[in-house]
Each structure stands twice: as structure tokens, then as C-alpha cells.
Amino acid sequence: MRLQFVFVCLAGAALVNAQATANPDPAAGTLRPQIASGLAPQSLLTQTREAAADAQDADLLARMLGVSDLTEEQVSKLQGAASRRVDRAKATLQRAQLLVDAGLAPVRSLDEPSQALSWAQSDAEATRSRAALVQQVVEMANLEAMIPDIPRAESPEPNGERPAMERFDGNGIFTRGEFTQVKMAFERQFRKPLPVSADGSTAVHRALGFDHSNRVDVALMPDTPEGVWLRHYLELSAIPYYAFRTFIAGKATAAHIHIGPASSHIATGAGIIRLAPEHPRS
């Protein structure tokens, strides 16, 4: 009787995987007649649907985790898919553990669901890292949108603190060739890559309505040795930049150095996309 039960479980699992792969709608396949005739348990329909949903989430993660340029909405979908896969993997492992505890399955039957949970958790961690990076770009873009409203600072505040934002207009332009020189100089100086968070126009900037073309955001605190060195290099090279020390006090920090002129604002109207002036306001 015990062997018969295990056989039914194994056969059911195989049928679940086959149905999920071959047919996104298991109810349209052969499962319902088998349930009606007593050849398969009713619970197998639920398992099949879960397997199909899990396959869809796995496909989304496989396609999107490798994409370097994501929007907030896309990252949110990835986080949902990753979280659901972890929950399903935990539930599968718990069911397998119950069979082992009851003596209905060998301990080695836990290997596969344990590995599946490990993979799901790894994808979830990768998704969290991507979400953090996208959120950082969002905060930087929002802060740069405030440039026209932030007064130009020529000296520290009366209390001795540095201003939230400083700017250097340079010659008003920034080219790809200059960026290559900046990266190479930074790597020679610090023996590590320049920590670029946004190189040119990104999905986040486009979604927020900014043209970030030929601009670069560098994730450096302006007053660290690396930040001070980079600002000094840009000034010697007459390359414009904006140095941000904070985003919103007490809420979030997106301190960074924006290399190049202020980002243009994309305005739409009558089917035409218009770009605001390239150069920052004085």
C-alpha cells in the first residue's frame, strides 16, 4: 500500500510537469477526464496549475534578469515572480518533508526540492540587488530634476556644511571620448573601475521623462577621496558636472556626481517630442 501511494505521487508529479510544459491551460488537456474517472486525484489539478504558473514566473526571470536596463515596473514584476517561486519551492519542500517524516519516501527525495528552493532564493536575491540599483538610479534622476530649483552654491553654508549640490559648468559639453579618458584616469589612480550607475539614457530616465544622453552618473560621495579627485579632474578638463551630497534628508540618499550638462526634459504634445535646452540654467 505504501509503495502504491508513492507510485501515485511520482506519476502525478510527472503528469504535472508534462501538463505545465505542453499546455498553459491544464483544464483544456486530459487531466479533467482522468480526475473524473478516478485515475488522478483532484489535488493534481491544483498542482498542475501551480506548476504552470511557476513555469511562467521562471520564464520571466530567465528573460529579464539578464537585461541590464530595467524600469521600476519591470523590476516590480520580477520581484513578484521571484517571491512567488520561493513560496512555491518552500511549500513543495514541506510536502516532501512530510512524506519523509511519515516514512513514505526516502530522504534522498528531498534533494531535488531543496535544490529548487536554493535556486529560487538565489534568483530572489539577484532580483533584490537589481531593484536596489534601479531605485538608486530613480533617486538620482529625481534629484537631477530639481537642478533648476537649486541655487548655485559658491561657498559652504554659514554653519560650515557643504551645500546639497554644487555645479561646475566647464565648457558646457561632454563627449564619449572625454568619458573614456575619465574612466581610464580613474582606474589608473585607484586601481578599480569608475562606479558608473547610469551611462547615457536608461529605461528609468526615459520612463521619468528625461533625456540622459551623453550624461553619466557616478555613484561616488562628492567629498570622499575618490569624489574629490574626480571633481578636480573634471574641473582641470573643463568638463561640466553636478555634485550631489544628498537626496532627501532623513529619507533616502542618492549622493553622486553627474557628469555632463543637466539632463533635458522630454515634453510631449501633438504627437511631437520636444527636448528642453541642453545647457543648465545659470
Q: What does the model show?
A:
With 282 residues, the protein is of the alpha+beta class. The protein folds into two domains: 2-144, no CATH class; 153-275, no CATH class. It contains eight helices and eight strands. The protein has a five-stranded antiparallel β-sheet with strand order 1-5-6-4-2, with helices on both faces.
- What is the helix/strand order? HHHHHEHEHEEHEEEE
Strand content: 5-15%
Mean pLDDT: 77
Order of strands across the widest beta sheet? 1-5-6-4-2
Name the poorly predicted regions: 1-24, 248-252, 268-282
| Overall radius of gyration | 27 Å
Structural class: alpha+beta
Q: Ends: how far apart?
A: 84 Å
> Count of DSSP helices?
8
* Biggest sheet character: 5 strands, antiparallel
Annotation keywords:
elongated, disordered C terminus, alpha+beta, five-stranded antiparallel β-sheet, 282 residues, three-stranded antiparallel β-sheet, 2 domains
